[in-house]
Write a structure and sequence with these properties.
Blueprint: E1 2-6, E2 12-16, H1 23-28, E3 41-45, E4 48-66, E5 71-90, H2 95-103, E6 111-116, E7 119-125
Antiparallel strand pairs: 1-2, 1-3, 4-5, 6-7
Length: about 130
């Protein structure tokens, strides 16, 4: 998610939905109302990280099961623990709020960004 906001007021101007964006979208996405100067507009890119879980899965080998016909099959020879992706989650301190925005539980336009030295550190209700 990319959030475009007014640096002076903290008001959110618009968003670009999604968790993964190509470099072109990251660089060129921009919203500028006519009554706000470009220097007063900020862009915040919400970082996401992949969640993983460790699961047990069968370990197999390919073996000849019939020497007469030379038929080959996969045979289970044990199990192994592997890391499996479980999706993505926001990699920010206010992750639960970002998830609420994505799911539609809360409206992002009901909030303002909290800034500290021109860095987004959270959100507050208007």
């Amino acid at each position: 998610m990319i959030i475009i906001y007014n640096k002076r007021t903290g008001d959110i101007i618009g968003t670009v939905e999604g968790r993964v964006h190509d470099p072109d979208t990251l660089e060129k996405s921009w919203i500028q109302p006519s009554n706000i100067e470009k220097k007063d507009i900020g862009k915040y890119i919400v970082l996401f990280k992949t969640k993983y879980k460790i699961v047990e899965q069968p370990k197999t080998e390919t073996r000849v099961v019939d020497k007469k016909t030379m038929k080959v099959e996969k045979v289970k020879v044990g199990t192994e623990m592997v890391k499996q992706s479980m999706g993505m989650e926001p990699d920010v301190p206010f992750a639960s709020l970002i998830l609420d925005f994505e799911s539609g539980k809360k409206r992002i336009y009901d909030y303002k960004v909290k800034l500290k030295k021109d860095e987004v550190v959270g959100f507050m209700l208007k």
